[in-house]
Every structure is written in C-alpha cells, then in structure tokens.
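Before relying on records like the one below, remember that each one covers exactly one chain. Contacts with other chains, cofactors or solvent are not represented anywhere in the record.
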Amino acid sequence: MITKDMIIADIIMMDRAVVPILFRHGLHCVGCVMANRETIEEAARVHGLDIDALIHDLNVHFQGESASSPA
C-alpha cells in the first residue's frame, strides 16, 4: 500500500510502471534529485496536486486494477 509519507524514488523502485501515473498527475520529478528524499505528499504539495487522487491511482495500480481517480 502506498502512503503519503513514502519517498518518490522508493515507489518508483517498487515498480517503474508507476511513472506514467506520476506524469498523468503532473508529477514530473521522477529523475529529479529531490525524488530521492522527498515524500509523495511533499512533492504533491509543492506542485499543487491532488494527493488523495494520486495515492488512490498508485494503490489501484499496485492492486492490479486499472487506475482511475475517485469520483
């Protein structure tokens, strides 16, 4: 389960297939040095992203379902 306090690089290392999900949500810092120490919540806050929708889609991905944001 992906949580808001997880480091971006750690999530990517779990499964590189999450990169398109991050991009779709506007989180393009995949190769950024900050990805190695910034949590997904910190990055979402800095970029003005909907953290709940992002976490949802990441967890759906890891559960093996097709990702879609909650209504």
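The first helix runs from residue 8 to 14.
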